[in-house]
């Protein structure tokens, strides 16, 4: 099959999967705002450096009020209040000899042999740790940013440059995943020039450097690291674990399935110091489990197996955060999903049975033999045992850990299926950030999902049935980058109510809410179901949980304005607007709802009659997203047309249009009158001009032509 034929099949395949997944094709946002609209009216701010690309590393510093950015050959410091102002930049290019050596190795000197800054961490009160590719010579540096109350500064400490091997990737195409805990850096990275020796590595700090077993596919099999988190297990710091999220080729896949990509969560103990006789300078507590995000079906599950990003949302205690993860598919159809995981479910998988394979010709099964003590994967601490160091672990524990890093049970999402999925939308999910918002009827998680089309989706998680079931509702689609560059990183500031988004082409800043954009009526504000917004009696404004005003109206769970907005007179009375059409031609009655999720209803009231009827669906009338198109106009089509938006069962009148169907003779007479009329001097007008474009048959029976009519009408027509 050629490329053209394969491309032609994709829409059909996407529609097939839409039917299989039983979802809409695809979800439509309530609001879709362009880059120009966001920039002009909704506070979008941007930042970019001249002749610089690849803004991948973002570090949010709320205390200093700064956003630190790592890009090609640069580190920048931006104001969290306005990234377009008070920016400081630091040039950090790779040395000329490194670039030349990179070029001699066959790399492109203009696109690959640069220093792409991949990670930024707050090292102490005055310095950042920054690491970059260094033209295929990974290097790290300490960047001085000064004390919190001082004037912002940005200075590279040239006396403290360090080898970045095992911390930053060599190749700018590879992602960096790391976390700095105390003075220890935990990173998942390719540790060699060829990009074949993938490892989970600990460096810096006082404890010995450790890594995973090299070139053992049971441990890591061509992984792509995504995120790393430090999550405490108890009040005892000796129980702390580091969790790695990545995707890799599955060692447990049968040969018939070929190369199968799966998503994983891996764990290591922070106090691991390696083994005494075996696994020396290697992790002894490394375990991994499959992370499943799939839609159950009668003919098998539909898997979203390409993990793209993970966001850790803190809960009331430090030990049980929620994990929001975005996935895409490796199939030919374009699909993405958001799955939510409980840390208790992750821990349960690591306490379950180990996966075991007796030999090359055997299948993977649950290990039924004796598991040595202490259980592999447990941290040496007084909480769960008497061992104080991994070097004290018995040899059978170390040997079992070496041969059984994979758990048999997978980690399933809460509710057993994705919270939100999108198929055939023309983009895939790349990044995610979340915010927990207090609303009038409870707390809601608001998700911001970055895509490879330069857009950010705003989705809320709403309870559905009993816990833990929930569904994701798509509120907004925001085009934050003019060039549609893929979103590569995101940071959220709940304190400032701002979202910071990075791409290859720059950095964008956008408020978390745009309450005024939802509309000027109570019903519109309530239907928006935005936890950040509420109706205050006069406008849709930001909701303040502490406010004691009686007029704050909000219904996130149901989005039902019928009770909250009953008797509300905030919506102005509809003015009747006149529209003219020509007999036998066409007329377009424009009516575009603010919400893309609204369904339009049209009713018709004939001249001289009191009753209204639904406009029938027939060949002569075509409903579009912007109004109603009437073809083959007749005199009987004259009358009043009422356009209403129906959403969540609530009907809201939008426009009242009086259509006057003229004969061809009347239309020609009006056209001649307009051509002969003198130009009126500027000033107040008793009559307001109303321009209408109509289609009519030529009076002489020739070609169809467009006539622009200017008909006098009362001032209320505009």
Please supply descriptive tags for the structure shown above.
718 residues, ligand-binding face of the semaphorins, domain 2, five-stranded mixed β-sheet, 8 helices, disordered C terminus
Describe this structure in words.
- The chain is mainly beta and 718 residues long.
- The chain folds into four domains: 28-53 and 426-512, no CATH class; 212-424, YVTN repeat-like/Quinoprotein amine dehydrogenase (Methylamine Dehydrogenase, Chain H, 7 Propeller); 516-564, ligand-binding face of the semaphorins, domain 2 (2-Layer Sandwich), CATH 3.30.1680.10; 576-717, Immunoglobulins (Immunoglobulin-like, Sandwich).
- It is 11% helix and 38% strand.
- The strands form 13 sheets. It has a five-stranded mixed β-sheet with strand order 1-29-28-27-26. Strands 35-42-41-37-38 form a five-stranded mixed β-sheet.
- The chain starts with a helix and ends in a 5-residue tail after the last strand.
- The relative contact order is 0.09.
- The model is unreliable at 1-19 and 683-718 (pLDDT under 50).
- GO terms for molecular function: semaphorin receptor binding.
Give the arrangement of secondary structure elements.
Blueprint: H1 3-21, E1 31-33, H2 35-41, E2 45-47, E3 57-61, E4 66-71, E5 74-79, E6 88-91, H3 96-104, E7 117-122, E8 127-132, E9 139-144, E10 155-163, E11 177-181, E12 184-190, E13 198-204, E14 224-231, E15 241-249, E16 261-269, E17 287-291, E18 294-295, E19 302-303, E20 306-313, E21 322-328, E22 335-342, H4 343-350, E23 355-356, E24 365-366, H5 395-403, E25 420-423, E26 429-439, E27 442-451, E28 455-463, E29 470-479, E30 487-493, E31 498-503, E32 507-511, H6 522-528, E33 533-535, E34 540-542, H7 561-564, E35 576-582, E36 587-590, E37 599-606, E38 613-614, E39 621-624, E40 627-630, E41 639-647, E42 650-662, H8 664-676, E43 688-696, E44 705-713
Parallel strand pairs: 1-29, 35-42
Antiparallel strand pairs: 2-32, 3-4, 4-5, 5-6, 7-8, 8-9, 9-10, 11-12, 12-13, 14-15, 15-16, 16-17, 18-19, 20-21, 21-22, 22-25, 23-24, 26-27, 27-28, 28-29, 30-31, 31-32, 33-34, 36-40, 37-38, 37-41, 39-40, 41-42, 43-44
């Amino acid at each position: 099959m050629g490329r053209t034929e394969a491309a032609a099949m994709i829409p059909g395949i996407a529609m097939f999967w839409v039917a299989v997944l039983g979802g809409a094709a695809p979800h439509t946002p309530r609001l879709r705002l362009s880059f120009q609209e966001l920039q002009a009216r909704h506070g979008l701010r941007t930042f970019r450096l001249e002749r610089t690309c690849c803004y991948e590393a973002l570090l949010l510093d709320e205390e200093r009020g700064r956003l630190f950015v790592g890009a090609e050959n640069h580190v920048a410091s931006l104001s969290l209040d306005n990234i377009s102002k008070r920016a400081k930049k630091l040039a950090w290019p790779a040395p000329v000899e490194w670039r030349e050596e990179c070029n001699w190795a066959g790399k492109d000197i203009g696109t690959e042999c640069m220093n792409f800054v991949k990670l930024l961490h707050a090292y102490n009160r005055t310095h950042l740790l920054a690491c970059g590719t260094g033209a295929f010579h990974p290097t790290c540096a300490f960047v001085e940013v000064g004390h919190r109350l001082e004037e912002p500064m940005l200075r590279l400490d040239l006396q403290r440059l360090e080898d970045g091997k095992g911390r930053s990737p060599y190749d700018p195409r590879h992602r960096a995943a790391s976390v700095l805990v105390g003075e220890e850096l935990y990173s998942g990275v390719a540790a060699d020039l060829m990009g074949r020796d993938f490892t989970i590595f600990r460096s810096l700090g006082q404890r010995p450097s450790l890594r995973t077993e090299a070139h053992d596919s049971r441990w890591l099999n061509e992984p792509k690291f995504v995120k790393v988190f430090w999550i405490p297990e108890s009040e005892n710091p000796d129980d702390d674990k580091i969790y790695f999220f990545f995707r890799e080729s599955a060692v447990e896949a049968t040969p018939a399935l070929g190369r199968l990509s799966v998503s994983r969560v891996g764990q290591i103990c922070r106090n691991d110091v390696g083994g005494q006789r075996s696994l020396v300078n290697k992790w002894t507590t490394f375990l991994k489990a499959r992370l499943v995000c799939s839609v159950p079906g009668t003919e098998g599950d539909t898997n979203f197996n390409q993990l793209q990003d993970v966001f850790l949302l803190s809960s009331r205690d430090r030990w049980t955060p929620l994990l929001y993860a975005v996935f895409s598919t490796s199939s030919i159809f374009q699909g993405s999903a958001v799955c939510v995981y409980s840390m208790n479910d992750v821990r349960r998988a690591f306490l379950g049975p180990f996966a075991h394979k007796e030999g090359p010709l055997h299948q993977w099964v649950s290990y039924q033999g004796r598991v040595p003590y202490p259980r592999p994967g447990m941290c040496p601490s007084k909480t769960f045992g008497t061992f104080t160091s991994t070097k004290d672990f018995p040899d059978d524990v170390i040997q079992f850990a070496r041969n059984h890093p994979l758990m048999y049970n997978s980690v399933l999402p809460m509710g057993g299926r994705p919270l939100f999925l999108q198929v055939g939308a023309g983009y895939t999910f790349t990044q995610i950030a979340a915010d927990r918002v207090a609303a009038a009827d409870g707390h809601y998680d608001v998700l911001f999902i970055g895509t490879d089309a330069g857009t950010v989706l705003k989705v809320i998680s709403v309870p559905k049935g009993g816990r833990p079931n929930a569904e994701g509702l798509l509120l907004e689609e925001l085009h934050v980058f003019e060039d549609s560059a893929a979103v590569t990183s995101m940071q959220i500031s709940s304190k400032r109510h701002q979202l910071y988004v990075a791409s290859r082409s720059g950095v964008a800043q956008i408020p978390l809410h745009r309450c005024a954009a939802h509309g000027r009526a109570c019903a519109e504000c309530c239907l928006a179901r935005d936890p950040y917004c509420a109706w205050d009696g006069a406008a849709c404004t930001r909701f303040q949980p502490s406010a004691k005003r009686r007029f704050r109206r909000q219904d996130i769970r149901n989005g039902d304005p019928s009770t909250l907005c009953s008797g509300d007179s905030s919506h102005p009375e509809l003015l009747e607007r006149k529209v003219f059409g020509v007999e036998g031609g066409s007329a377009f009655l424009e009516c575009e709802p603010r919400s893309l999720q609204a369904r339009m209803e049209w009713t018709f009231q004939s001249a001289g009659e009191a009753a209204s009827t639904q406009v029938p669906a027939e060949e002569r009338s075509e409903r579009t997203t912007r109004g109603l198109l009437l073809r083959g106009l007749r005199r009987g089509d004259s009358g009043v047309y009422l356009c209403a938006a129906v959403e969540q069962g609530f009907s809201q009148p939008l426009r009242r249009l009086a259509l006057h169907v003229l004969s061809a003779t009347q239309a020609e007479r009006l056209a001649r009158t307009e051509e002969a009329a003198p130009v009126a001097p500027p000033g107040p007008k008793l009559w307001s001009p109303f321009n209408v474009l109509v289609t009519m048959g030529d009076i002489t029976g020739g070609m169809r032509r467009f006539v622009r009519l200017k008909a006098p009408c009362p001032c209320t027509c505009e």
